[in-house]
Amino acid sequence: MIPGQIEEVNCPWEYPDEKAALRGLLSPGPAIRAIQHAGEAATHNAVLQALAPFKTASGGYRLRNKARYMITRTRQFGGDGQS
Which of 26, 57, 61, 73 supports an S-S bond with 15, CB 3.0-4.6 Å? Predict the structure, then answer.
């Protein structure tokens, strides 16, 4: 592959309320392991503390994220397998 241009795109995570935020953030595997290790209440409290700075006036949460990506292309090979 031949590296090309690198770009960034905004990918905000928006949750309308606390329940939706906890459901979304605590469903992936690592969060499940945290719940198994520390317990559901402790994990919920830790996530809510981390979310506090991102609470909106309407009671939801908005996390501003950026994703970085690179567009690549493949090398063209000749009929003999050589580039």
Answer: 61
CA distances from 83 to 3, 27, 74 (A): 16, 45, 10
For the entire predicted model, the pTM comes to 0.71
Residue 27 Cα distances to 30, 35, 59, 71, angstroms:
8, 10, 21, 30
Residue 51's identity, in one-letter code, is L
Structural domain contains residue 33: yes
Q: How many domains, in total, are found in the chain?
A: 1
82 pLDDT more than 70: no
Q: Is the residue at 83 inside a domain?
A: no
